């Protein structure tokens, strides 16, 4: 009877139980089915028991054993657990009729009995891995569908979840709490340490790295720390982790009890990051790895499946460390090289290179770079590329021409343009000297494409000319790519006639363009635009979604529509088309420049002169760089552009010239959001009257801040996920991303700002036309040297604090430092000018601001002391010296290089 009751009693919670992420998830979830799925030692039962003890509803607990896989036994124990939970032991469930003859009637009777017994009940099935009976699954199906308002189901499972639950998880009716939620995070481990008087996050990170948050491992380390004497050091902790007793117990006792062939298998495969049966067969030299891996997984010995892919396996880190200690470094490198050569022949070349780096096989790394480098760059796996090239550098390997070309592309992708150009140019020379003309042309083609995207169309033409030889004689993949780039350059310059002439020449030679290719689409669209009399096709008539850089052709159409609307004085339509061109262009073209100039003249006409000047500045940069001067505007608007450019050149007088043009002192509100990114990050909706937008989550705030940081540049979903959720699984990260993005959009839709975040060509960007920011005002000032020189005090209002303030966004530090340096430069210049003008008292605020930003600069401190001394405030100057001397000694453990007398000697 006692054993029977133990099956239906709620377990006690251990003394000193500490909550973790799983507890928060459990208490916040409203799903009707909760699945707790993890291996041994993750505390699933304890988490659920803790939750059940703290909820007001009644709960029926059923601890399943291997004897409960029979339907009748399952029903008997289940109904007893319900009676026990309700305190109604007498009202037993009685079966009418014979079970084998009519299971359906039995299940119907059970549902009716439950319906009369309960109002609402939590039902817990612990150790559900013992169940595989289809009749029991069918019973649960009926209970879930008929009793969903009265029963909330909790399933605790050690092994893989039965496929029975798939339909419920896919529909959202069931949620799963797995190892990630059940394991302890570094922050939670830090709480344990804090209770022991240890306040060091590095200790928590070390314990997490050793155990991967495995609760049993964490608990064992904590126990050993408590048993240690006082003054435990980091070295002591490392020793505990390296010699974890739980590892000794499980590894030695279990490992030594395994057959010799399995021991050998474990040792030889432990060095692998992940395992498949095929690669294990290769490195171990056997043919039955699949059955071995399945055996180890089912028995919960050392190996676990990797994610949802049943053919991938990996070791738990604690187990893996032990196994690696059983092999030599030379043995590990031999296995890694074998694995690398094997994977090189498969599609998993990235892992082949990773193993090759660890196995010191430089030839494999270069081979992978040559074959897969371009696709890796397309996937933005820059960290991977950095690792590989760093390895080749350490091994003093001379790059092959192809690897050098890939290296240059990688450097270009991460923004190291100067070094990238050198490497790419060197690769081109090597290809040419080796007689690899096709590869040489690919280099020149890449250089032409990058120059075009940078708005350097003249330079793009030079590179393309070097790659354009023989295209009239030979037609191959390279020739097609070269011609495609030429047509793209034509599109960037709205040279539709030249493009059509080249395309028709090619077709007259019998060359056929591929379906959905840029060349075929260009021939169709540009030929239509060139018809006489001129015709304008509708953008809705063409499908360019699957055409690489199809926006160039789209711009050709929109440019003609913008021109037609402008000439017919339909300025609202012209403005909308101009915005459309800008928002959906991946880089600058003649059309985007014309669109900016169009917006500028229209803004000027409306009296918004400041905006007009900034809009024209953006477009005019491209036009000047490519020596384009006439866009075909009316004489009135040509005069406006002339006046705008005159003001742009006369930067010192610009504020006064603009103010004379404005009809009101304050810019008219235009349905824009306002962003304050200096000294924090705050977003104000139109008409919010000083109340910043409240974000649903910190990640929503950071995602929007990063889009603003890019200033309208596009970014892929993958890059955003890598930035914001680097440690989440891919499916989880995608879900988090879309949930976060949805919450952001919902904040702006009520204000009519549906287009604030654009999505084009699988990339996201912030529509900067709908944004006013303090950064824009600050940059306008900083980019105007004469304004900085004449009105340096304005910087104090424009720079109230650092870029993004104390947000802690790592991606903002570069920009923050750049702005801080410019800020200090203006302050230093302002202080110097006041001193030269014999107004040392006016220089004091500049020095005070400089010290707030850089309190440890001896140069600034010395100049501030001299300034105070010149103002007759000698005592204050000495006090300032003493304060800073004390600060230096306390924080830096240094003294000033000069004494007070030496500093004021120049006065």
Secondary structure layout plus pairing:
Layout: H1 2-8, H2 21-28, E1 33-37, H3 44-53, E2 59-63, H4 71-86, H5 103-117, E3 121-126, H6 134-146, E4 151-157, H7 166-171, E5 174-177, H8 179-182, H9 186-195, H10 201-211, H11 215-227, H12 234-242, H13 245-257, H14 260-269, H15 277-284, H16 289-298, E6 303-306, E7 309-315, H17 317-324, H18 329-344, H19 349-358, H20 362-378, H21 382-394, H22 401-413, H23 417-433, H24 437-453, H25 457-467, H26 477-492, H27 496-508, H28 518-529, H29 551-567, H30 571-583, H31 590-605, H32 609-625, H33 635-649, H34 654-661, E8 673-676, E9 682-684, H35 698-709, E10 715-716, H36 717-724, H37 730-748, E11 757-760, E12 763-766, E13 771-773, H38 774-782, H39 785-790, H40 794-798, H41 813-836, H42 840-853, H43 858-870, H44 874-892, H45 900-904
Parallel strand pairs: 1-4, 1-5, 2-3, 3-4, 8-13
Antiparallel strand pairs: 6-7, 8-9, 10-12, 11-12
Helix pairs in contact: 2-3, 9-10, 10-11, 10-12, 15-16, 15-18, 18-19, 19-20, 19-21, 20-21, 20-22, 22-23, 23-24, 24-25, 24-26, 25-26, 26-27, 27-28, 28-29, 29-30, 29-31, 30-31, 31-32, 32-33, 35-37, 41-42, 42-43, 43-44
